[in-house]
From TrEMBL:
This is NACHT domain-containing protein. Residues 344-463 form the NACHT domain. The keyword Nucleus does not apply. InterPro entries: NACHT_NTPase, P-loop_NTPase, Peptidase_S1_PA, Peptidase_S1_PA_chymotrypsin. PROSITE patterns: NACHT (PS50837). SUPFAM superfamilies: P-loop containing nucleoside triphosphate hydrolases (SSF52540), Trypsin-like serine proteases (SSF50494). It comes from Streptomyces caniferus. It comes from the Bacteria. Keywords: Membrane, Transmembrane, Transmembrane helix. The chain crosses the membrane at residues 529-549, 639-661, 681-704, 725-746, 766-790, 811-833, 848-873. Gene3D superfamilies: P-loop containing nucleotide triphosphate hydrolases, Trypsin-like serine proteases. Residues 944-959 have a biased composition (Basic and acidic residues).
Length: 993
């Protein structure tokens, strides 16, 4: 707001309400007149020579009615060489002093090419006689404003370091000894909404159409403490790399909400933005990004021939010349660089560990921070799971959104849910991480699919893979390409120092990294230093080194320079990767009350993490999903495990449930009841195991069961879920009838001939009613469950543990419904049947007992069997919570272990799945674990399959592990075999302790 409290300041660009005329009083001689600009709530930027010897300073602002108001000013900072000064506005409310909270800071930029510019000031040629003055004898004079508009170039005044501003000249030059531009000094020079300089002087020999300005970029020649003071006073960025680079041929177009945006779209996009922001802020805290100081990761326009014509990138009109965009910067400028690309399509190249993932996280958080209503929501998608041959880009994006943000599965739009609606309405900005992670042979199809759309995107990939696909398929249309630069000693020196234990000798602070960094600076070509510098060129290895050598006893950073231990960069990398897990799982107790998390043994943790890495390698993916654990076992083995658990659940409950019925409802004794219970339990359990085992194999088809994205509530069903009521009811009816008929056959043809007929089968009527009851009950249960399903709401987190909890609750609710629907009718029917009843067992009592028994059998036999066969949670319980821990491949508390690994920085969380913090770490763990854990498919223990050791080829000349993937002839992905299905119970296990 202007000083008079009139109108709000514009968020960007020149605002006339903040332009200041500076009037000074000097000790000797007449006062000076100059210009200035209110750059913050309390500060005015002007030229230093205007206020150099001032006794007092007055600041004159415009008011909305064309008048003026004045406040006092006080010089608080000045530099004569750069000719800039900062004035503090006095807090004189009676004079209409401005409110600091109501003025937004300006933005600063540097120019690299000629640009258009403007400045608003009070030059001498605007001197006017005040005709409205009441003093007719001596009317006062005043200077009106002048809006100078022209161009500037960085190539003039190179020696002086000033900007040459070319404008329309004033018509007259009445006083040759005085410049008509006098009084314009101190005016802020603007271009594209940024301050690029301050008007400083007019050279008479240049003519009246040119004057000079002190350029912002040159201010960074000042001492660091002076720059820091300017940062505090006017918001000048702390270093020149953070300045926006101009020009921008097509200025960024703000993404404002369309007037016809449906409320449903706005609400869903807003909720998604909040969820994404919270998710990645939390992840950034866990991964300790920037703690205690960030790595200075830099990037610039790639020199590789892998990007489109600049005219296409800048979407320039035909016939115009499009110059390259200035794309250099650091991570904190990634959003500015992205928005400077008119097409909003940017590719980021970087070797393994170069910082691509951290860049995507920084991009998403910074863009969400500045997001306005209606803007696209940036969402990170890991491209490794996309098969462009079988799934379109939009369909795959929709599926990933629903997986990680279940509330987007709510029905809406033409595509059926909110995720599809947001994609249709262009409210998603895809951040596609890991183009190189797409299966080998599918990169060309993926690039062609991306070229069939013009949607804005940010894509990350390794350079070699991207160069190959571009050579064969052409560039990504309209996309600019930047490449992450190698780190230098100066980039990571402070990062290593501040993350290590201080060593104070001789009164100076130092760390164990000091001699290492000194060698890297002083002898960069030495054998040890050259190897280490090559390894430390990537942020991943620097971060691993800081973790491994953070005060660990017996480890000294100087050992990394020993060529006898580490003869090559590859050896150094393998050492850091191998030492990382023991370093983060330090078993040393830290004091009383130390949690079990801190006492987890490193060897066990490494073995479990090795299995997880080999499991991902087998599936050829980077996404660690809890519902996929154990699915690398043979399908037949999984069917046996699921069938055994279903048989155990149904057989035990049936056998035990028969005891009270036969003891109280018949005249047979305990021996008969035990014998019948054993026979019935074995036969019924065997049947349940066979049925549910084969059902699991048929339903899964070898693929893992996806977790349910719904929850159950009485009044929460939707039209979409209720449409499945009839199909599921018919499925349950048919399944229940067949299962009941087989049970009747077993009881009549096997149990009875063995001498265990208790006379409670109801005869022919019972043989007819029981299948009908079980069939109708099963159909009713599945129909009720379909009716009660509702999409998971936004309040539900997208974490693996929360999604697992939701699926577990659904199965438990399933079991309860099975118990009520099957148990109550069975009890009523059994209570009404005639038969041998003791004096203590009248019909209703017998019916209550039978209903309870049949309900429990239905819950554990039908409900739990259904859960094991048809749900991801059942598969998880059978494989991940029982079989894998029993065989030593995973701990018993799997989710707790994954959460703990996440907190330690070994894993990162991406929506509902985990990933290793870097693919390089995953590959290393795969390589070291498979020789110990891989068996032949024949099942012989202790022999690794020589053709499937899991060691991926390492391309020549590369420091990073290869990422080569195999593709089957049919286009499906294939990983290597690590023998996950042939583990023997206890093989290779350590004591669980």
């Amino acid at each position: 707001m202007n000083p008079a409290g009139g109108r709000a300041a514009e968020p960007d660009g020149l605002d006339a309400g903040r332009v200041v005329q500076v009037l000074t009083t000097r000790r000797a001689g007449p006062g000076r007149r100059g210009s200035g600009y209110q750059v913050s709530g309390h500060a005015v930027l002007t030229a230093a020579h205007v206020v150099s010897d001032a006794v007092s300073v007055r600041l004159r602002f415009f008011t909305e009615d064309g008048g003026t108001t004045e406040v006092s000013g006080e010089p608080v900072w000045a530099d004569a060489a750069m000719d800039i000064a900062v004035l503090r506005i006095a807090r004189d409310t009676s004079a209409g002093g401005p409110g600091a909270a109501e003025v937004r800071p300006v933005r600063f930029a540097a120019i690299t090419q000629p640009v258009e510019c403007e400045a608003l000031g009070f030059p001498r040629f605007r001197l006017r006689l005040d005709s409205a003055s009441t003093d007719r004898d001596d009317p006062p004079w005043y200077r009106d404003s002048h809006h100078a508009r022209g161009t500037t170039t960085p190539l003039s005044y190179l020696r002086a370091g000033s900007l040459e501003i070319s404008v329309a000249p004033p018509e007259y030059d009445p006083e040759p000894d005085r410049s008509p531009w006098e009084g314009m000094s101190g005016a802020a020079v603007w271009s594209g909404g940024y301050v690029i300089g301050v008007v400083s002087e007019h050279h008479r020999f240049d003519g009246l159409g040119r004057f000079a300005a002190s350029q912002v970029k040159r201010w960074y020649r000042l001492a660091p403490d002076r720059i820091s003071a300017l940062n505090d006073l006017i918001g000048l960025p702390a270093d020149a790399d953070r300045l926006t680079q101009l020009p921008q041929l097509s200025p960024p177009r703000p993404e404002t909400p369309e007037p016809d945006d449906a409320p449903e779209v706005r609400e869903a996009a807003g909720k998604l933005a909040r969820e994404v922001s919270e998710q990645w802020r939390r992840e950034g805290r866990w991964q300790r990004v920037g703690d205690p100081s960030p790595l200075a990761v830099r990037f610039g326009c790639t020199e590789r021939n892998v990007f489109d014509h600049w005219a296409n990138i800048r979407r320039a009109p035909f016939g115009t010349v499009a110059e390259p965009l200035p794309l250099d910067g650091r991570l904190d400028r990634i959003v500015e660089v992205y928005e400077s690309v008119p097409s909003r399509r940017l590719v980021v190249l970087g070797e393994a560990g170069s910082g691509k993932t951290v860049l995507t996280l920084r991009f998403v958080l910074d863009r969400l921070k500045a997001r306005a209503a209606g803007d696209r929501v940036p969402v990170i998608f890991g491209l490794g799971s996309w098969d462009p041959v079988t799934t379109s880009l939009d369909d795959w994006l929709c599926g990933q959104l629903v997986r990680d943000y279940p509330f987007l599965d709510a029905p809406a739009g033409k595509r059926g849910n909110l995720a599809g609606l947001l994609l249709d309405e262009d409210k998603i900005l895809p951040v596609l991480d890991g183009f190189d992670e797409i299966a080998s042979g599918l990169h060309g199809a993926a690039l062609r699919a991306l070229n069939r759309t013009t949607m804005p995107l940010l894509l990350t990939t390794r350079p070699a893979e991207y160069s190959r696909v571009v050579e064969d398929n052409g560039v990504l249309t309209e996309a600019a390409v930047i490449e992450l630069a190698d780190l230098t000693v100066d980039d990571y020196a402070d990062y290593l120092h501040r993350g290590s234990r201080p060593v104070r000798e001789g009164g100076e602070d130092s760390t164990a990294w000091q001699p290492v960094l000194a060698r890297l600076r002083e002898e960069p070509d030495g054998p040890g230093a050259a190897n280490l510098a090559q390894v430390f060129a990537t942020p991943l290895m620097v971060a691993l080194a800081r973790t491994v050598y953070r005060g660990t006893p017996g480890r000294r950073p100087s050992d990394l320079l020993d060529v006898r231990k580490f003869a090559s960069p590859e050896a150094l990398q393998e050492h850091l990767l191998a030492a990382f897990i023991p370093a983060v799982y330090d078993p040393t107790p830290t004091g009383r009350g130390t949690s079990r998390r801190r006492r987890r043994h490193p060897e066990r943790a490494q073995r479990w993490l090795g299995y997880l890495a080999a499991h991902l390698h087998e599936l050829d993916t980077r996404d660690l999903a809890w519902w996929e654990l154990g699915t690398t076992m043979r399908l037949s083995s999984r069917m046996l495990v699921v069938g055994f658990l279903a048989a155990l659940a149904f057989g035990v409950t049936t056998g035990i449930g028969n005891l009270p019925v036969d003891l109280l409802a018949t005249e047979h004794g305990l021996g008969f009841a035990l014998g019948r219970g054993l026979a019935v339990g074995l036969l019924h359990g065997l049947l349940a195991g066979l049925v549910f085992g084969f059902v699991y194999g048929f339903v899964s088809g070898g693929a893992p069961r996806e977790p349910s994205r719904v929850r159950l509530q009485i009044f929460g069903g939707t039209r979409q879920t209720r449409d499945t009521f009839l199909p599921r009811s018919l499925l349950g009816l048919g399944f229940g009838l067949l299962f009941a008929l087989v049970l009747v056959f077993l009881d009549r043809c096997l149990v009875a001939p063995l001498g265990f007929d208790d006379g409670l089968d109801g005869g022919l009527l019972g043989a007819i009613l029981f299948p009908l009851e079980l069939g109708l009950g099963a159909g009713l249960v599945l129909g009720i469950m379909a009716w009660l399903e509702a999409p998971i709401e936004i309040g539900s987190a997208v974490s693996a543990s929360e999604l697992l909890s939701t699926n577990r609750k659904n199965v438990v609710f399933h079991m309860l419904v099975w118990m009520l629907v099957i148990g109550i009718p069975a009890g009523l029917g059994f209570g009404l049947l005639s038969g041998p009843v003791g004096v203590l067992m009248p019909g209703p009592v017998r019916g209550l007992l039978a209903g309870l028994v049949f309900g429990i059998e239905a819950a554990f036999g039908g409900g739990l069997g259904y859960g094991l066969s048809f749900t991801a949670w059942g598969q998880w319980v059978a494989l991940s919570r029982m079989w894998l821990p029993l065989t030593g491949r995973l701990p018993w508390a799997v989710i707790a272990f994954l959460d703990d690994a996440h907190r330690r920085g070994v894993l990162r969380q991406a929506g509902a799945v985990y990933q290793f913090r870097h693919a390089r770490l995953q590959d290393h763990l795969t390589q070291v674990s498979q020789p110990h854990h891989a068996f032949r498919r024949s099942g012989s223990p202790g022999r690794a399959d020589p053709e499937h050791t899991g060691n991926r080829p390492r391309p020549e000349g590369r420091l990073d592990s290869g990422n080569t993937r195999r593709s089957r002839p049919d286009g499906t992905h294939g990983g290597t075999t690590h023998g996950g299905a042939n583990w023997l119970p206890g093989a290779g296990r350590e004591s669980q302790g």
